[in-house]
């Protein structure tokens, strides 16, 4: 569904207002995260609607998979608050991430953040009935009547599940649909699905040291008008291990980069086909650091080449 320009502007203004209001009302006076939010994080439009999305999101695999105690829940809640206060929107989860959908649903409800966030989950099931049952469970666990995006997880029973997702989109229960992978072995099939289906989003693995998606999948996403959401932007932490003990190169300041996380994320979101990246983020400090990659300048094509050479030489 394509929103008219005026509606899109209203939606985006409302989201910004809600995020700012959440920040203003929820920030503890003098609390660790009560610093000014970056002025205007970079947003890119979802090609199928034009709706702008902040280029840095959050992934919830692993760290949200087990329901933590009260103190642990408070840390995750502050992570989401800090993220939303800085203009963050996309939170990605999946029914297969243990308790993650339930944890997220409880956090979003208690923090009053539903309208500020763009909730993305997945369906990974065999057969129409199993897929529908899993999706209904996602609505319950996420405690919401509207899920922004559901994507078919790792292409599982993709034709059946896309059919169901189209019905849900038609009914207004989800706003966007798509497909995901993080395996090179699935790329050929992934490209075939991209070529034959109308999709709002694709989600694929891409990182400074894992660039295969840039060969055909990202250009195809651009050509087909599909938003590209990037998973495993740090290679599950592999990139941090590769630069351990190393200082950021001085030239990173040329694109307003203040940390290794921002170095890795800015490389990704500077790709013209990329809409957003979803780093696994489970502390307020990481949320602030990661969304900082949406502020200031991005590396140009020459700087991106230099970043590749730097990482390849490690
Ligand atoms: N096929 C699919 O659909 C698929 C597959 C894989 C992933 N995904 C999605 O992609 C998301 C991202 O993947 P991921 O979480 O596995 O890996 P990732 O984002 O590449 O890396 C996460 C790692 O980076 C660390 N980290 C995060 N922010 C940091 C910062 N600012 N400074 C230093 N370290 C930082 C985390 O530390 P800690 O360990 O301390 O938290 C964690 O070890 C997942 O959460 C999931 O939503 C989807």
Structure overview:
- Helix content is 42%, strand content 14%.
- It has 314 residues and is of the alpha/beta class.
- The protein has a domain at 51-237 and 272-288: TIM Barrel (Alpha-Beta Barrel), CATH 3.20.20.100.
- The strands form two sheets. Strands 3-4-5-6-7-8-9-10 form an eight-stranded parallel β-sheet.
- The protein is globular.
- Residues 1-34 have low confidence and may be disordered.
- NADP nicotinamide-adenine-dinucleotide phosphate (NAP) is lined by residues 59-63, 92, 153-154, 180-182, 203, 231-237, 240, 261, 278-282, 286, 289-290.
Identify the notable features of this structure and list them briefly.
disordered N terminus, 11 helices, 314 residues, binds NADP nicotinamide-adenine-dinucleotide phosphate, globular, TIM Barrel, alpha/beta
């Amino acid at each position: 569904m394509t929103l008219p320009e005026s509606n899109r502007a209203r939606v985006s203004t409302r989201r910004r207002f809600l995020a700012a209001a959440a920040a203003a009302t929820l920030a503890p006076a003098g609390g660790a995260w009560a610093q000014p939010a970056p002025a205007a994080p970079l947003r890119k439009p979802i090609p199928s609607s034009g709706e702008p999305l902040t280029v840095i999101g959050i992934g919830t695999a692993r760290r949200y998979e087990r329901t933590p105690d009260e103190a642990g829940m408070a840390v995750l809640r502050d992570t989401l608050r800090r993220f939303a206060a800085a203009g963050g929107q996309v939170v990605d989860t999946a029914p297969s991430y243990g308790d993650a959908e339930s944890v997220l649903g409880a956090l979003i409800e208690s923090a009053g953040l539903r309208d500020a966030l763009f909730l993305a989950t997945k369906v990974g099931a065999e057969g129409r009935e199993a897929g529908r049952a899993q999706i209904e469970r996602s609505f319950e666990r996420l405690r919401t009547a509207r899920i922004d995006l559901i994507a078919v997880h790792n292409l599982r029973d993709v034709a059946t599940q896309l059919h169901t997702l189209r019905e849900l989109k038609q009914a207004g229960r989800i706003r966007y649909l798509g497909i995901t992978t993080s395996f090179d072995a699935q790329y050929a099939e992934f490209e075939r699905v991209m070529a034959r289906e109308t999709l709002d989003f694709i989600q694929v693995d891409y990182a400074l040291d894992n660039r295969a998606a840039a060969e055909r999948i990202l250009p195809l996403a651009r050509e087909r008008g599909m938003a590209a959401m990037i998973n495993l932007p740090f290679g599950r932490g592999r990139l941090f291990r590769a630069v351990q003990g190393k200082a950021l190169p001085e030239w990173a300041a040329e694109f307003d980069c203040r940390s290794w996380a921002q170095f890795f994320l800015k490389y990704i979101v500077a790709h013209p086909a990329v809409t957003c990246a979803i780093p696994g983020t489970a502390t307020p400090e990481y949320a602030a650091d990661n969304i900082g990659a949406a502020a200031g300048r991005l590396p140009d094509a020459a700087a991106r080449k230099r970043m590749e050479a730097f990482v390849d030489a490690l």
